[in-house]
Amino acid sequence: MLPHSRKKKILLLCLICFVPAFFYICYLCRPIYYPNEPSVTSWGAPIVWHGSFNRTREDELHRAQGTVIGLSVFAVGKYIPRYLGHFLETAELYFMPGYSVVYYVMVDNFSLVPKIHLLPNRSMVVTKVEKHDRWQEISMMRMRDIIELVVPRAKTEVNFLFCMDVDQEFTSHYGVETLSDLVAQIHSYHYLWPKFMQSFETNPASAAYVDPSKSDYYYHAATFAGTVPEILKLAKACLEGIWRDKEKGIEAIFQEESHLNHYLLHTKPTKVLSPEYNWDGWRNVKYPTLRWMPKDYRNLRENPA
Ligand SMILES: CC(=O)N[C@H]1[C@@H](OP(=O)(O)OP(=O)(O)OC[C@H]2O[C@@H](n3ccc(=O)[nH]c3=O)[C@H](O)[C@@H]2O)O[C@H](CO)[C@H](O)[C@@H]1O
Ligand SMILES: [Mn+2]
Question: Which residues does the annotation say bind an alpha-L-fucosyl-(1->2)-beta-D-galactosyl derivative (predicted)?
Fold first, then answer.
């Protein structure tokens, strides 16, 4: 039998450790939706949530302007058979329904590209890209290919350009409420985490360096968007940072995502997408619009680390 004073100490310790942990877990698990969450950033940009915008008004505006939207997506190696078909099929269902859309599909092997039946007013341009040996290079060099292969076409064909990862699926209406000059996606993993736990590059020698205490949000590179000139500026800045790091023999912790976060800290996005627009599958988002597909790094990536 433990002495009475020892029991009291253990009980007190449990209260000190577990009660705050319990409340923090409840905070992390609570349903996330508007109007419980903020819908404007500190610099005045809207944070888009289900219910925070008037879709009818936005639709009227974009239909009157004849807005055309581009969507660039890369699928290299095993990512083509695993993800590309489903990504495009769900985009046909939910990405900007009723609008003219041009898909810029970047692959290393034309013969594996699935046949997708496109709706009227929607077209697809398939372009061959180099296959790099490391997944990190495949991921990072998308910035170079966006500059050299996507932008030259997109600048005359579309008003807004989205750049997305392929390992995701659309699950409900992803509409014109997401359009703006420069659009960034809040990373759903990091949304509720304190700043010191965010995954910014913390090596001051890297061009991607961000002091977490000065940050706004941790953004997810799986979606960024904007007008074509803004995307060109963003991609050029990220690529320059990647080259500067390479000259020093370093690679930012989350590759182009780290450089994107550095850029967006200094060039504030004009619109921010809430975690609803890039849901990780377990986060308790009430109105998910696009969701991560299951990862399978071991089988899909060329190199394990
Ligand atoms: C844990 C981890 O690894 N995280 C990285 C990765 O998250 P992710 O796990 O989201 O990376 P990912 O495997 O989806 O790769 C990014 C994208 O590059 C393309 N791709 C990549 C590899 C490949 O062999 N074929 C191919 O097509 C594809 O479009 C893919 O969606 O990417 C992020 C950028 O979005 C960051 O760079 C993260 O550091
Ligand atoms: Mn991804």
Answer: 187, 257, 280
199-219 confidence digits (pLDDT tens) = 999 999 999 999 999 999 999
Q: How far is CA 43 from CA 62, 266, 269, 271, in A?
A: 25, 12, 9, 10
- Please confirm, yes or no, whether 251 is among the known catalytic residues: no
Tell me how far apart the alpha carbons of residues 91 and 7 are, in angstroms, rounded to a whole number.
59
Q: How far is the CA of 61 from the centre of ligand 2 (A)?
A: 32
3-state secondary structure of 107: strand
150 lines ligand 1 (CB under 6 A): no
CA 168 to ligand 1: nearest atom: 31
The dihedrals phi and psi of 300, each to the nearest 5 degrees, come to: -100, -30
Q: In what order do the strands lie in the sheet with 68-75?
A: 47-48, 271-273, 182-186, 219-226, 160-164, 68-75, 100-107, 122-128
Model-level pTM?
A: 0.93
ipTM, 2 decimals? 0.92
Does 187 sit in the ligand 1 pocket, CB within 6 Å? Answer: no
Classify 249 as helix, strand or coil.
coil
Structural contact between residues 180 and 162, judged by C-beta atoms closer than 8 angstroms: no
Nearest CA to ligand 1 atom 16: 139
CB 253 within 8 A of CB 28: no
Q: pLDDT for 105-114, tens place per residue?
A: 999 999 999 9
